[in-house]
Design a protein that fits this description.
The mean pLDDT is 94. The chain is globular, with a radius of gyration of 16 Å. By secondary structure, it is mainly beta. Strand 1 and strand 2 form a beta hairpin. It is 5% helix and 63% strand. It has one domain.
Length: 203
């Protein structure tokens, strides 16, 4: 069960946004990721709880940030309920999309798991983005391409690192994501600072 810590920063001006302390593991029905987010000063600022089924679809999502809460799942596309900090108003949403995305590295692993690309292949995917600080939903279209898959020798055996090129179809902006198993090694705004055990490998 990988357990570790990511540092998060603004991908444009590199302003520190805090840290994400996480643990994740494959299970009999898929994969689960839980984390807590802290500010640069170390204060609690949110949490992520994401469970995928064996096909990589989100069967349960719960996000907390800035007092806001979102619960969602894959249902007729993706469906969610967003609750305001006072807890008095809840709004429901549904979009014909494949999955959710957001600032947590968990969503990069989840999208890669959902798409299951082979080297030199690419595909389009529609996602509902829920980003800090208020988790407002926004539908985004992306193109994902698996550029390279390379095995690296480690003390625990070979570790396969996959390099993805992700393109935003509305702006054309491109960035690179490196994933090993169920851990993001590097991506814009994300640095893996600490990892207590090797990444899990999916079947």
């Amino acid at each position: 069960m990988p357990r570790g810590r990511y540092s998060l920063h603004d991908p444009h001006d590199h302003t520190p946004l805090g840290e994400e302390h996480f643990q994740c593991a494959p299970g009999p029905s898929g994969w689960r990721y839980v984390s807590r987010l802290t500010t640069p000063a170390g204060d609690q600022r949110g949490s992520v709880d994401l469970a995928l089924d064996d096909l990589g679809r989100p069967i349960r999502l719960e996000l907390h940030a800035g007092g806001w809460q979102v619960r969602g799942a894959a249902l007729d596309g993706v469906t969610w309920v967003r609750t305001d900090p006072t807890g008095t108003h809840a709004t429901e949403g549904n979009v014909r999309a494949h999955a959710f995305t957001g600032t947590s590295p968990a969503f990069l692993v989840a999208t890669a798991r959902l798409l299951r690309l082979t080297p030199s292949s690419a595909t389009r995917v529609r996602l509902v983005a829920l980003t800090d600080p208020v988790l407002a939903p926004r539908t985004v279209d992306q193109s994902w391409a698996l550029v390279n898959s390379e095995a690296h020798a480690t003390d625990n055996g070979p570790l396969t690192v996959e390099e993805y090129q992700v393109s935003a179809l509305d702006t054309g902006e491109q960035h690179t994501v490196h994933i090993a198993g169920d851990v993001v090694l590097a991506a814009p705004g994300i640095e893996l600072e600490d990892l207590e055990s090797p990444p899990s490998t999916f079947r």
